[in-house]
Design brief:
heterodimer; A: alpha+beta; Heat Shock Protein 90; 5-stranded antiparallel β-sheet; 4 helices; B: Transcription Regulator spoIIAA; 5-stranded mixed β-sheet; 5 strands; about 50% helix; about 15% strand; globular
Chain lengths: ~130, ~130
């Protein structure tokens, strides 16, 4: 994959498409099975958040290279209501929906890097990266 | 509409999840399975997840819900066949699947269900006598 690929996240079915696209890229990059599984699981949590809490948005997949290492970067963006208290949202057990409240905090634990930016009333952007380990 | 087949094996129901489920399909399965426990008078449910390459918090919650509902309907649930990479990821995600019994494969899951039914029946007869 040379260029970033942007996938829509409007409905539940789109979450499945994103999961499969992430898996394909993770395999192509040669991530270990455990790292693939962690990345796809994190992507599933975040993609679902985008659909349910963000009112829909996009997922962008890209393969990145930094010095000698390569990885997969995923960006989840929505123009939904945003998150008022990010620290609280990252805590296990915090939920506004009917989930277990493990989505954000759990996703953060599964990947190498996790960045979140959110503006109430404007939307949320979450960027995660999984580096290939040697 | 997509469906996940539910097979009857004696007193048990066997569900093999082989598709990448979207959330609505997971909810349909939950409903159909609880319905079948009643119509088939099932004593146990085996859920084979060996084909699932991830279990996220939604699927985890669905499995817990099924186990909880089945228990209320007097049936035991055993989840079998979890891939090692899925187990590692689940624990790091923070999901411990409360209330769910697991077994390595369908055969062991079946043994577990049979043993628990025998133990339960003996306890009931003991109370009656």
């Amino acid at each position: 994959m040379d260029k970033p690929v942007e996938l829509p996240l409007r409905a539940q079915e789109d979450v499945v498409v994103v999961r499969q696209a992430v898996r394909t890229q993770a395999v192509a990059l040669g991530l270990s099975l455990v790292d693939q599984t962690k990345l796809v699981t994190a992507a599933s949590e975040l993609a679902r958040n985008t659909v349910i809490h963000g009112g829909g948005g996009t997922a962008t997949l890209e393969v990145i290279q930094e010095a000698a290492r390569r990885g997969i970067r995923l960006t989840f963006e929505d123009k939904g209501p945003g998150i008022r208290d990010i620290e609280q949202a990252l805590r296990d057990g915090f939920t506004t929906g009917n989930g277990l409240g493990l989505g954000l905090g759990g996703a953060r634990r599964l990947v190498s890097e996790f960045h979140i930016a959110s503006t109430p009333g404007a939307g949320t952007k979450i960027v995660i990266t999984q580096w290939r380990k040697h | 509409m997509e469906r996940i087949p539910i097979l009857k094996l004696g007193q048990f129901l066997l569900v093999t999840i082989q598709v990448d489920m979207h959330d609505r399909l997971a909810l349909v399965l939950q409903e159909e399975l609880t319905g079948r426990i009643v119509t088939d008078s099932a004593r146990g449910v085996l859920i084979d997840i060996s084909s699932l390459d991830i279990v996220d918090s939604f699927i985890g919650r669905m499995l817990s819900n099924i186990a909880g509902m089945a228990r209320v309907l007097d049936a035991e649930t055993v989840v079998v066949g979890m891939q090692p990479s899925v187990a590692i990821t689940l624990v790091e995600l923070g999901l411990s699947l409360p209330g769910i019994r697991t077994a390595l494969n369908v055969d062991r899951g079946m043994e577990l269900l049979k043993a628990s039914i025998i133990a339960e029946d003996e306890a009931r007869h003991g109370q009656a006598g």
